[in-house]
From TrEMBL:
Transmembrane segments: none annotated. It holds the Pfam family DUF503. This is YlxP-like protein. It comes from the Bacteria.
Length: 92
């Protein structure tokens, strides 16, 4: 089972693309290091207060994939740098 979650986020305290990229890179690195997921910024690369991150997990058991993706979303929600706005799941 492959699960993917696409989440759009707002980043309020950035003043440049350089600051935004540092925050997004930090978030993606933390997700990959602490959880069994792959993550990447997918959209809005040229907007400095908005991003879209896709997180993917693979396992034979759908419940385990759901748990891992929920942990990733919880980690994003705990980060004060950004606010998650729109979240969509896909299952393959």
């Amino acid at each position: 089972m492959i699960g993917a979650v696409h989440c759009e986020c707002l980043i309020y305290q950035t003043q440049s693309l350089k600051e935004k990229r540092a925050i997004v890179k930090s978030i993606i690195t933390r997700l990959k290091q602490k959880l069994n997921v792959a993550a990447a910024e997918m959209d809005y690369q040229n907007l400095w207060q908005r991003t879209s991150v896709t997180i993917v997990s693979v396992n034979e058991n759908r419940r385990l994939v759901e748990k891992e993706l929920q942990k990733a979303l919880d980690m994003i929600d705990r980060m004060p740098e950004l606010e998650r706005t729109i979240t969509n799941y896909e299952w393959f």
